[in-house]
Write a structure and sequence with these properties.
Structural class of chain B: mainly beta
CATH architecture of chain A: 3-Layer(aba) Sandwich
Structural class of chain A: alpha/beta
Strand content of chain B: over 45%
CATH topology of chain A: Peroxisomal Thiolase, Chain A, domain 1
Strand order of the largest sheet of chain A: 3-2-4-7-1-8-12-11-10
Largest sheet of chain B: 5 strands, antiparallel
Radius of gyration of chain A: 19 Å
Number of strands of chain A: 12
Oligomer: heterodimer
Order of helices and strands of chain B: EEEEEEEEEE
Helix content of chain B: under 10%
Shape of chain A: globular
Strand content of chain A: 15-25%
Distance between the termini of chain B: 28 Å
Chain lengths: ~375, ~130
């Protein structure tokens, strides 16, 4: 099947932007992406967009222009950006449009999300008795993982340290200051073993990508980043996912493992071929566990990988070079697209002071959302 | 055994969930259909009162609404959250009673039913697990 290409990328800086709505930030990102592609909004034949807290993504057409295009709002928790890209890529593959846009934005209130039990088909007493807090899931999964695979507390701190270090090199990041090892290790305990500076926080921002077919790229004579694979999976029976009220006797691989496996099969390459990657890091444990679930190491090998600095920008497998969710914060609709934006910058050699050396050619993104959704992409320069 | 509310069934004799008649998988709380094999033939299953701690954490900040006690910020009591592996193999998510003994994976745990009470007098029966007394 014909490959899909990314020919335009746009981002509104993540963090807090008083005076701009979430939608405004999405429109800002869309205009940036159009400029980058050398296209006009009226060229876009189909769009997929999402937001959790900033209304219907389609309302962005009020500002971008009422061209009458098919515009589909979608929402898959924190994986919303991954899902909108997945849908847009498949629209290009099907020939539904010459140019497609994946757009996402959000502006969340301060503090942790308060998920609805009812919207997740979970009895209300689960949230009323304090058992439906997203951060508990991260901690419960990590606590067991550290026990099973000997991951140290020191390694948790090092992942956060790297996130803030990388964020300090990214002008679009929310957290642009280095946070010391000591500050992280002594920050307030939130859900044992996870402390305050080990988490990402809900934030604001917008991101947009413009896609077309490889044929069109050749006709236009422009440079592009190609989507070698885009896959999305929801949870399968027996996997340990967010909001589960019970776990099966026999735990099975996660939605992330299944999406990653499908993507590598589809692209015909393996994890060793990836030069730069983005891994969902809603907290440090997620980055650690997702590294293995995506196939980048064996379970337990993260300890030596991280201790040896191999996930740093200068390392063998640079992870979350823009600071990831921890330094950028998480505007849900935009977050998965921000990951792809960063990989495009890296593959185009435009990542400035955080550029991975030796011209990375193949990149990878992974986003995870409730109630058990994973979307991954493999991207390449040629 | 009476339903506490919705599909939650427990008393001092144990937690009650569902077992799928077709594929034999267990679920908690009670459920109408099987997420493994799609069957709608479910039967009640008492998982008992004892199990082992499979994973744990603590809730150090007060959860937002609709947490039953969310507005009592000043005397917020940290509670534990864990998965308890019951004898049949299913792992049940539960509140954990915090004590002076640190939680450890593999600890023997026992069911303790209690009542959460708000200052306005409203109450909510809850099940919790605690480290089994020697």
């Amino acid at each position: 099947m014909e490959r899909v290409a990314i020919i335009g990328i746009g981002l509104h800086p993540f963090g807090r932007t008083p005076g701009m709505s979430g939608l405004d930030q999405g429109v800002f990102a869309a205009r940036k992406a159009l400029d980058d592609a050398g296209l006009k909004w009226s060229d876009i034949g189909i769009a997929f967009g999402g937001s959790r807290s900033s209304g219907h993504a389609m309302a962005a057409t009020n500002q971008l222009g009422l061209t009458g295009l098919p515009f589909i709002n979608l929402y898959t928790g924190c994986a919303t950006g991954g899902s909108s890209l997945f849908a847009a890529a498949n629209a290009i593959k099907s020939g539904a449009a010459k140019y497609a846009m994946a757009i996402g934005f959000d502006k969340h209130e301060r503090g942790a999300f308060s998920p609805s039990a009812k919207n997740n088909d979970i009895p209300s007493w689960v949230s009323e008795t304090g058992l439906m807090v997203t951060t508990q899931f991260f901690a419960l999964k990590l606590q067991r993982y550290m026990h099973d695979y000997n991951i140290s507390h020191d390694t948790l701190v090092k992942v956060a340290e790297k996130a803030f270090k990388n964020g300090s090199l990214n002008p679009n990041a929310w957290r642009k200051s280095i946070v010391s090892y000591k500050e992280i290790a002594e920050s307030k305990m939130i859900n044992d073993p996870l402390r305050k500076y080990m988490f990402c926080s809900p934030a604001e921002g917008g991101a947009a990508l413009i896609l077309t077919s490889e044929t069109e790229v050749r006709k236009m004579g422009v440079k592009a980043v190609f989507l070698e694979a885009t896959e999305m999976r929801t949870k399968n029976y027996g996997s340990f996912e967010v909001y589960d009220t019970c776990l099966a006797a026999n735990i099975q691989p996660t939605a992330t493992s299944n999406a990653a496996k499908a993507a590598f099969e589809s692209a015909g390459i393996g994890p060793d071929d990836i030069d730069v990657l983005q891994i969902q890091d809603t907290e440090v444990g997620a980055e650690i566990m997702h590294l293995a679930e995506n196939g980048f190491c064996k379970h337990g090998d993260q300890e030596s990988l991280i201790q040896n600095g191999e996930t740093l920008i200068s390392g063998r497998i640079p992870v979350n070079t823009d600071g990831g969710c921890i330094a950028n914060g998480e505007p849900i609709g935009a977050s998965g697209l921000r990951q792809v934006y960063e990989i495009c910058l890296q593959l185009r050699g435009q990542a400035g002071s955080r550029q991975v050396l030796n011209s990375p050619k193949v990149g990878y993104t992974h986003v995870y959302g409730s109630p058990g959704v994973s979307a991954v992409n493999i991207l390449a320069t040629s | 055994m009476d339903t506490v509310y919705e599909n939650l069934v427990f008393d001092d004799n144990g937690l009650v969930g569902s077992q799928c008649i077709d594929c034999k998988e267990y679920f908690f709380p009670k459920t109408k259909s099987c997420s493994n094999c799609s069957s709608v033939d479910m039967t009640n299953k008492n998982f008992g009162t004892k199990g082992r701690l499979w994973s744990w954490t603590t809730q150090n900040l007060a959860p937002k609404a609709p947490y039953f006690l969310h507005d009592i910020k000043e005397d917020y009591q940290i509670y534990g959250v864990g998965f308890i592996e019951m004898p049949c193999g299913v792992k049940v998510k539960s509140r954990l009673q915090v004590s002076t003994v640190k939680f450890e994976i593999g600890q023997r745990m026992e069911l303790k039913t209690s009542i959460l009470e708000k200052p306005n007098g409203e109450t909510l029966p809850v099940f919790e697990f605690r480290i089994e007394k020697e």
